[in-house]
Amino acid sequence: MQARKDGEADDMNGSNDREALPEAVPETLAASEESVEYELTNLGPQVHTVNTHRCVFGHDASGRLFAYSAMVGIPAILLVIDVAEEKLVARIPIEADMGGTVRECTIVRGLAAQPDGTVYIAGTPSHLFKYVPGNRHVDYVGKVPGQQVFDMKSGPQGVLIGGTYSKSEAFEFYTATGDTVCLGSVLPGESYAYSVAYDRDRNDAYFGIGAHAHLVKYDRDTKRMTEIALPERFQGNPFVFDLTAAGGKLFIRLSSGTTIAMDLNTQLFDETEGSVTSRFMSPESPSGERIYYTCDSRLGYYDMNSREYVVLDVQTGGNANGFTFFRLTDPAYPGDTLIGVTREGRLFKYNPSTGHSKVVNLEVAGVPTELQTVKATSGGYVYTSGYLSGGIALHDPEAGMTKEFTNETMGDGQQLPGSQTDRIYEFNKKLYFVNYTGMNVYEYDPSIPWDRLDSASPNPRLLFTASDIGYQDRGLAGMMLQDGRLVIGTVPKYGHLGGALVIYDLTSDRREVYWNIVEQQSVTAVAYKNGLIYGGSCVWGGLGVHPSAEEAKLFIWDAAAKQKIFEITPVPGTRAITELIEGPDGNLWGSAEGCLFIFDPAARQVVYTKQLMPRRYSSTVWRDTQFAVGTDGNVYGVQANLFFVIDAKTKEMKVIRSGGKRNWLSLDRFGHFYLTEGADLLRISIPGLVRKPGD
After folding, report:
1. 125 preceded by a cis bond (ω within 30 of 0)
2. Of 281, 291, 350, which is closest to residue 316 (Cα–Cα)?
3. Angle at 283 between CA 277 and CA 284, to 5 degrees
4. Residue 496: per-residue pLDDT
């Protein structure tokens, strides 16, 4: 029987189609649900961040200017900002109850304001909403093509143009009729129609492609798609991140951070290039001479005459998500003033004629962030990390408090770089955060204050990276060995195949990286026994590239000899191994698409398999299962939204809990299980398994 403590939240509904992991969902269960008594305590959200994507500007019926930005959340939040009053006037959840079925977005990458003030909103998953100025809610419009909308811009009056993942599909939506027209795959074989721009003078749309950068023009009059070759020096980029049509130019921001301009009339590219860190460029200035952007929180502009990119000594408080020009009534800003909103939720103003500028903190409270991983440490603390928005949190179960290490709680620049921490390890009372992007590992000493801005001794400090070998990007599997070696299996960047095995010796500060151990496959599971490293592979590499292999492999790596000494397909027909541990019987227990397999390391053969639940990985899966050996010697695990136990002797599985979103798991020193569920941290205690201090 299940016991619930006061304050436990109901299971969260909806789904978050994560950019990093399209998931397969169990069809049926191999065991009865909730047949194990347990006590559940919902410890609540752990990481709160402000992370906005996109900003557009529109007017209400009185002509008042509002900025609209969307904050990542569960669900995402539409921020309504009164530009003249310099304040946030509304926070509106991007969700709608459709007769008992909730439609929501968690990440918004498409915003488009119409002449009548209506704002259209699209993102992840690919639902379309609209907001009418003055309302306190959004309205659900309908489903648009693709799994996720990655950009959406206003086209001709009353037409929205969008680009999507996972088949690089594009669409047009007609606001007057509510009709959606799918334009098909912009570039067959590619996954992302990542960015969109519209050339109003020529009635052409442009699409930026990933995970291999391409530029495609769509002639709306002839309905033809035509690829325009990027300059050769930029063709190795994974993505065309952003497109802006302004001043007769198409500005193309590549994933390297470089921006180039193309003449929309001649389709010739500038020889000059600039470093742009804002999402998009501004409209052409009323003077017709400049187009503005931000570069590392400073304002810059593209000179229309010289074609040079110039960075000014003007602080913007962050990198902009959008710009407009507007005539304010404030005498300090005569004539046309540049207005922008940053990703951190700050409003800035810059007057080109006077040089006067201002940054306004809008007091945007952070929202709960979906948790990416959980780690219970030997000191009794539980660390979690936030997905996509980053951030680390420490939960102290004894004190019942949580401390967050984010820019919102500690100041700009204090948060660990990157979108998320994928794994956390511990050795000698220090923690090691494995961060995406770039497969960077940071060392954190909890005995001294967190201070990322200490130039001499930052804490956490960057320890090493694996991005320099085989384009590695994610460290989603690994373990810390007792001798102080950290072993990590990696996944490469977008558009690349071939993962790596990374071994870092904390004592000698020596790094070893072995790329492509399993030909063209990622390393997504790691275990260790008797001096040998065992790894499980996944046929997928980075998103946006098709696998070349058919089946996942189990391999043995001899760290002393520095070579692979064995390889086998443990479960024929499966495409990813997402967990390996040393089981209670001394054998290796693994999971491949819901199939438990047990590998005898002495005989080097699979001695047992059992399909615990039906799973079919039809698209990229890097993480799916986690196992831990409980204090009773049985194997506990999570997969998708299930928390279960496998009897060590009979191998029978019992589902302890089924609910909410997919979970990640950690077991503390007393036998409590900690699970992530959306933004919440759960503690599950099973009678008979929990030890008291001193036991």
Report:
1. yes
2. 350
3. 115
4. 95
Task: Return the sign of the alpha-carbon dihedral for residues 455, 456, 460, 461.
Answer: positive
For tokens 């790094």, what's the residue? 511
What CA–CA distances, in Å, run from 497 to 5, 141, 511, 569, 602? 46, 38, 22, 19, 31
HEC-encoded secondary structure of 308-372: CEEEEEEECCCCEEEEEEEECCCCCCCCEEEEEEECCCEEEEECCCCCCEEEEECCCCCEECCEE
The gap from C-alpha 238 to its chain's centroid, in whole angstroms, comes to 16
CB–CB of 212/220 below 8 Å?
no
**Cβ(466)–Cβ(513) below 8 Å:** yes
What's the pLDDT tens digit per position in 594-652?
999 999 999 999 999 999 998 889 999 999 999 999 999 999 999 988 999 999 999 99
Q: What is the DSSP annotation of 430-462?
A: EEEEEEETTTEEEEE-TTS--BTT-SSS-BSEE
Q: What is the DSSP string of 270-304?
A: PS--EE--SSS-PPBPTTSSEEEEEETTEEEEEET
Q: How many CB atoms lie within 10 A of CB 15?
A: 14
Laid out side by side, the sheet with 382-386 consists of 371-376, 382-386, 392-396, 401-405
C-alpha–C-alpha distance, residues 359 and 350, integer Å:
9
Q: Answer whether 683's CB lies under 8 Å from 397's CB.
A: yes
Count CB neighbours of 230 within 10 A.
Answer: 20
Residue 10, pLDDT > 70, answer: no
Q: Find the angle CA(447)-CA(451)-CA(452) to the nearest 5 degrees.
A: 130
| Distance between CA atoms of residues 387 and 383, nearest Å | 14
Query: CA 295, CA 695: separation in Å to the nearest integer?
Result: 57
Instruction: Give pLDDT tens digits for 537-593.
Output: 999 999 999 999 999 999 999 999 999 999 999 999 999 999 999 999 999 999 999
- Report the SS3 class of residue 409: helix
List the single range of 21-35, 106-120, 300-314, 493-507 with lowest mean pLDDT.
21-35
Q: pLDDT tens across 441-484, in order?
A: 999 999 999 999 999 999 999 999 999 999 999 999 999 999 99
| SS3 state of residue 410 | helix
pLDDT at 694: 59
| CA 192-198-200 angle, 5° bins | 170
At 678, is the pLDDT very low, low, confident or very high (cuts 50, 70, 90)?
Answer: very high
One-letter amino acid at 154 equals S
The residues that bridge with 108 in the sheet, in sequence order, are 123
Work out the number of other CB atoms within 10 angstroms of the CB of residue 646: 22
Q: What DSSP letter does each residue of 26-54 carry, written as one string?
A: -SS-SS-BS-S-EEEEEEEE--EE--EEE
- Taking the C-alpha atoms of residue 291 and residue 96, their distance in angstroms, rounded to an integer, is 38
Decide if 410 contacts 450 (C-beta within 8 A).
yes
Length of the chain: 695
How far is it, in rounded angstroms, from Cα 496 to Cα 489? 15
Gap between the terminal Cα atoms of the chain? 26
Q: ∠ CA 14-15-19 to the nearest 5 degrees?
A: 160
Structure confidence at residue 661 as a pLDDT band (50, 70, 90): confident
